[in-house]
């Protein structure tokens, strides 16, 4: 008993010493660079995590720089004091890549949130990395342009976080991933160098394009402080079709049929289980007929004839029995209502503590993978309710296993980890990716070898050593 007590005192004494050490360390930075620092318990908890729920945040401080120069000072200080930094955006990430679990200092970019310059001729916008995605989208629209990378976390996620994760979302089949829209980047590397990459050039054949290395690097190579994004032309009114079917193969048949004649903006899929949860939250069902699978297709109202042709294709598919029932939006308001069926799934199921997965296979192999994986899940875990949805037009599936009420949280996670092993082996067999768009972070690092071979991972480690020789930037994320 007394031993425990002594150990306890010594633990608290150690912690107190650690706190004193820390505050001395932080004080020097606060004085030299005037960086705002938070160390209260609430802030450490809030900023120490992302949307992933299965880790415990343990940050030692939160730094809130306002300029690139302050970020340079933070990196220099971190090298001197051997302190690990976790770059942090809107903390909507789903791979625990923005978690501080090991006394790291979180560097939040939220105060670097200014839009700096719109260049209407070049169709680019330069902004600080802490600008919220939706804010940038609205700004582009107000100025007659369109920023097309879009997804349900737009109201909180930041442009810097989108670049660091190479965010995808709902319009990838038409506009591509974030990578396609990054015209320039300002980055502070783990050595404290400021790199001004690509400078908005369309053509730039001068050796390695380092900009591309930072896109999707999950904060492990540098802290992005400024981003220049290309902008698209504002689309015409968008029209949404929601169609139901009972056959997996029909999902791709519908896609192929429309795609052969039309330019699709989005093609999403969700199941009857997803619809059950969303419609329980006051979102109207799209039509009365019950179907096993639903697809949501979006296209531009290019002309009346174009829309008429799309409607004819829809009727043909109905007549052929490929589509069981369906509906077409008659106004932007109705289109937005129909989008809720797909976009509200995450929120509508969050009370069931879903264990989330995000994988991809070649587009043509989506039905085959879905059928094989869902049969495996039904056979091995009959009590699991599984919500499948995703951006199937680009081969991306989200698999959310809902926690049964009679299993405790940690036990449930353990079971799901076993499912991961089976699923990622299957992904390897299909030559797919264990992470389509959510990244690797902490969640998937143990499984990276299912998608990347040994030589590739070794090269990634070498690249990290070049940009971050002291391993101060998000250590332990993507790989150890
Ligand atoms: C409801 C919901 C729906 C989602 N849908 C999609 C979707 O359809 N498609 C998709 O791709 N993602 C989706 N996501 C995941 C998430 O929103 C994206 O990964 C997003 O890009 C993360 O941005 P963030 O600012 O929140 O980054 P954070 O979560 O804060 O950080 C993510 C990673 O980026 C790093 N980082 C952040 N800012 C910087 C910076 N300035 N410099 C260097 N590194 C930095 C962090 O260290 C971390 O590694 C969804 C999330 C939610 C909650």
Entry keywords:
single chain; 480 residues; alpha+beta; Uridine Diphospho-n-acetylenolpyruvylglucosamine Reductase, domain 2; Uridine Diphospho-n-acetylenolpyruvylglucosamine Reductase, domain 3; Alpha-Beta Plaits; 4 domains; seven-stranded antiparallel β-sheet; five-stranded antiparallel β-sheet; 15 helices; 18 strands; 38% helix; disordered N terminus; binds flavin-adenine dinucleotide
Distance between the termini: 38 Å
Number of helices: 15
Portion of residues in beta strands equals 15-25%
Q: Work out the number of β strands.
A: 18
Mean pLDDT: 94
The biggest beta sheet reads: 7 strands, antiparallel
Ligand types:
flavin-adenine dinucleotide
CATH architecture of the largest domain: 2-Layer Sandwich
Give the overall form: globular
């Amino acid at each position: 008993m007394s031993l425990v007590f002594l150990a306890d005192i010594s633990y608290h004494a150690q912690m107190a010493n650690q706190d004193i050490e820390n505050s001395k360390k932080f004080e020097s930075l606060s004085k030299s660079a005037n960086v705002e620092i938070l160390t209260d318990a609430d802030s450490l908890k809030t900023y120490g995590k992302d949307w992933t729920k299965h880790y415990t945040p343990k940050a030692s401080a939160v730094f809130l720089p306002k300029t690139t120069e302050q970020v340079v000072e933070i990196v220099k200080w971190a090298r001197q004091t051997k302190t690990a930094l976790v770059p942090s955006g809107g903390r909507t990430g789903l791979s625990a890549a923005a978690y501080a679990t090991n006394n790291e200092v979180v560097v939040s970019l939220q105060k670097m949130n200014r839009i700096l310059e719109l260049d209407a001729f070049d169709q680019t916008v330069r902004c600080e990395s802490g600008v919220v995605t939706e804010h940038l989208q609205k700004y582009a629209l107000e100025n007659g342009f369109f920023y097309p990378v879009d997804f349900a976390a737009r109201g909180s996620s930041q442009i810097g976080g989108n670049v660091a994760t190479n965010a995808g979302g709902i319009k990838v089949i038409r506009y591509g991933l974030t990578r396609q829209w990054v015209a320039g980047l300002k980055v502070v590397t783990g050595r404290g160098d400021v790199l001004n990459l690509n400078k908005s050039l369309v053509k730039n054949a001068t050796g390695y394009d380092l900009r591309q290395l930072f896109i999707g690097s999950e904060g492990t190579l540098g802290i992005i402080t400024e981003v220049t994004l290309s902008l698209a032309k504002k689309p015409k009114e968008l029209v949404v079709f929601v169609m139901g079917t009972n056959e997996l193969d029909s999902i791709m048949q519908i896609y192929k049929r429309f795609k052969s004649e039309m330019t699709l903006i989005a093609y999403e899929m969700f199941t009857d289980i997803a619809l059950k949860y969303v419609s329980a939250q006051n979102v109207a069902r799209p039509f009365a007929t019950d179907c096993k699978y639903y697809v949501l297709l979006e296209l531009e109202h290019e002309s009346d004839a174009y829309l008429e042709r799309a409607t004819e294709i829809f009727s043909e598919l109905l007549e052929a029995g490929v589509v069981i029932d369906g509906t077409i939006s008659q106004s932007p308001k109705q289109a937005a209502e129909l989008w809720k069926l797909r976009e509200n799934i995450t929120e509508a199921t969050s009370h069931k503590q879903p264990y989330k997965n995000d994988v991809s296979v070649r587009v043509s192999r989506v039905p085959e993978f879905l059928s094989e994986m869902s049969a495996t899940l039904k056979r091995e875990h009959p009590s699991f309710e599984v919500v499948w949805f995703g951006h199937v037009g680009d081969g991306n599936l989200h698999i959310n296993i809902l926690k049964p009420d009679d299993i405790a949280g940690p036990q449930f996670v353990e079971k799901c980890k076993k499912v991961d092993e089976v699923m990622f082996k299957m992904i390897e067999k299909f030559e797919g990716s264990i992470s389509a768009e959510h990244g690797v972070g902490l969640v998937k690092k143990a499984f990276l070898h299912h998608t990347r071979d040994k030589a590739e991972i070794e090269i990634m480690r070498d690249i990290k050593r070049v940009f971050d020789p002291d391993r101060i930037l998000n250590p332990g994320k993507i790989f150890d």
